[in-house]
Design goal:
Blueprint lengths: L3 E4 L2 E4 L10 H5 L2 E9 L2 E3 L1 H14 L8 H15 L4 E8 L16 E8 L7 H4 L1 E7 L14 H12 L4 E6 L2 E5 L3 E5 L4 E4 L10 H12 L3 E4 L4 H5 L3 E6 L3 E8 L2 E2 L7 H16 L4
Parallel strand pairs: 7-8, 7-14, 11-12
Antiparallel strand pairs: 1-2, 1-6, 3-4, 3-5, 5-6, 8-9, 10-11, 10-13, 13-14, 14-15
The structure holds pyridoxal-5'-phosphate (PLP).
Amino acid sequence: MSRVFYVNGDFVAEEDAKISVLDRGFLFADAVYEVSTILRGKLIDNNAHLKRLGRSMSELSMSAPCSDEAIIAAQKRLVEVNGVDEGLLYLQVSRGVADRDFAYPANVDSSMVMFIQEKNLLNNPAAEKGLSVISVPDLRWQRRDIKTVGLLYPSMAKQAALSAGADDAWMVEDGLVTEGTSNNAYIVTANQEIKTRHLGNEILSGITRTAILKFAQESHYKVVEEPFSLEEAASASEAFISSASTFVMPVVKLDGQPIGTGTPGPVAAHLRKVYIETALQREDL
Ligand code: PLP
């Protein structure tokens, strides 16, 4: 059975899921998005995702397509009609359709599309094996706190990692790691502190990051929100990433060299377990 997509209020088959050539998302990457996890048919931490969506739109003076309640109703219906138990729901809002002009158009309704990818997230074999990452310069724009669809550089970095036989790339600016191509980056130092870059315009404030930093504190780990260098990462006892699609995923290799023992570490394993257990118990983390 083919997937059902959501396009501006309609639930349609893939072949009918179309938007205009003049959509500003296509012409200018003038669009923002969110990715919510679906576990056992429920959207995890979706309210936090919608709050970030609201912030992204507001930072770009983009009008909301409809109320959060209407978005949630459409998301739930999409999950239901697709009969998806586990996977990811992509929601994209663009400034809308207008004749090509750099200036923001006046009185234009924003466009909203949604689709689902069914995926095995809980039993992801990468959690057992760990990821290998390479470092690349962070060549993105300077408002990475806004979750826009301007994803060409992260896509180039991911491809560079795959071409080098790795799984992902960590981006580096001024000698310090910002984040992964589509995830936040962490190390566990030799004295068992969890270190991850502080929030600001340089990284996306991950919804999963917020949840796992809370879980880390509840588990009495010391959390330090500070940037770390590649050298610190190379000598860390372990490393990991977080995102809605990976939860917590160990990183075992950086630029071809093992991190710590070169196998998934206990802190990442613990936080992954707590994240999954909590997400299976309640929707807001
Ligand atoms: N950083 C970047 C650049 C991302 O693209 C993402 C997710 O797509 C994240 C971090 C993690 O965010 P979240 O935990 O909300 O999925």
